[in-house]
Amino acid sequence: MQVWSDLACPWCYVGKRRLEAAIARMPEPDAVQVVWRSFELDPGAPAVQPAEASYAERLARKYGTAVEQAEAMIARMTSVAAADGLSFRFDRVRPGNTFDAHRVLHLARERGVQPEVKERLLRAYMTEGEALGDREALARLGGEAGLDADEVRRVLASGAYAAEVRADEAEAQRLGIHAVPFFVLADRYGVAGAQPVEVLSQALRQAWEDAPRDEVAEGAVCGPDGCS
């Protein structure tokens, strides 16, 4: 299974947790291999955006809506996340560029700790208020999740894994992926959005049984213009 997602995407964290629950229901959960692919919701963002406005105010500007409506959207996402065992702290979120974080995830895959690093970075961003465009923060967080912090620093000081991130994004474009999370199973079946566990379980079973048709299910996603 390949999953395109961004670390700055709330629904991607929810989708990850639901995917884990769906995999746990499989007859052989250890046989399901997940590869996390790169997708940037805001590739033009600065490394760390200045805290000039609240998350709700930034969301309101993006959607062209009132701050009160943005706050209602945030409350809904927070409530949904809580039901899946996640604590979203939008009051702490520090937006910024995630390109370097995706490079770290490619390093993590080579070192065999991509799931652990993915989880650590998502929690750092959505719960702890870490700036994932801060290279020193990435080195520290990667070290906490099983990477060598000094190696992370060396990678980030170079252009390592930049081509891999761009290749993931080019593949997403080729597949018509415009919002995340997006799950591709066995190179045949697509599931778009943070679907309920039951939907993801059904997709896993279908891929497992190699059903003869391609399907894409639609769910909650984040795109360049915001989450919906």
What do you see in this structure?
The structure is a single chain. The chain is of the alpha/beta class and 228 residues long. It has one domain (2-227): Glutaredoxin (3-Layer(aba) Sandwich), CATH 3.40.30. The chain is 49% helix and 10% strand. The chain is built from 9 helices and 7 strands; from the N terminus they run βαβαααααααββαβββ. The strands form 2 sheets. The chain has a 5-stranded mixed β-sheet with strand order 2-1-3-4-5, sandwiched between helices. The protein has a two-stranded antiparallel sheet with strand order 6-7. Helix 2 (55-63) crosses helix 3, helix 4 packs antiparallel against helix 5 and helix 5 (114-126) crosses helix 6 (135-144). The longest helix has 17 residues, at 67-83. The protein is globular and about 50 Å long.
